[in-house]
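#structure-requests
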Amino acid sequence: MVDLTVVILTKNEEKNIRKCIESFRGIVKRFVIVDSFSTDGTEALCKQLDAELRTKGSQLDLYKNKWVDYATQLNWGLNQTDITTEWSMRFDSDEELTEALANEIEQNLPGVKEPVNGIILRRRVYFMGRWIKHGGRYPELLLRVFRTGKAMCEQKLMDEHMILSEGTTTTFQYDLIDNNQKDLEWWTAKHNWYSNREVLDHQMTLEKEQGNNSSRDETLEAGGQSSGQASMKRAVKNGGYYKLPKFWRAHIYFIYRYYIKLGFLDGPEGKIFHFLQAYWYRFLVDAKLYECEKKGIKMEKQGALEVPSNR
């Protein structure tokens, strides 16, 4: 069993949490669930999973904490839940390990020596049951495993990444999977919620550039170490995408994703995904930015996502 604690944030994740936990195939010592006061069967299911894991020498500990934002919640989980294992891992409840990655972690992680303190994993995204292979979406390279105490989540409202405080990284070969089991109504509601966070995050970035915010949180922009891909995407987004005209940039981004990066090869599910994620969502963000600028509005911080999934 690997000396590893997996930290997972939940809010009404009854449909996802079992497959998430079971994908580790009993290879890790401990799971830490930080729940934002779920109203479905998440808590009861976690208690059941803990009982099952303890028969195999593992355990699942459930904590509850009021949601502020993703980074705050994750860092709370990393710092306030008595993690004593050599390694820690950030994981989402709608994600799962492939069998190959579970085996790779079990076999290779115990042999990783310093100064390597972080492991970058490859993520593949599924949408409506289909693997989205094109449109620049695969593979996503993310720093997810790190020596306990050697990384934190950057304090951002959107696209927050783990930042390594010292040491170097290495990349494992096999994939983790993002395969949410909830419906399209939930997906669109979540992205509407995301769009408010994106607007506030952009407003805060502009304030920092104008010298109106003295925050010195460690981020990718400040040279924080994460995956090279994450740093490149952040630079392109802030230094390229947001320099383009509002609304037109959503058109350009969709064309890039769907045609130039061959998103059309992902079939009907890919057409829906790339249109909604690369065009509708980005256009919605621009519309809200326009409204805020026109009316002098500062977007408010968002609470935890509250979207029941009815199907």
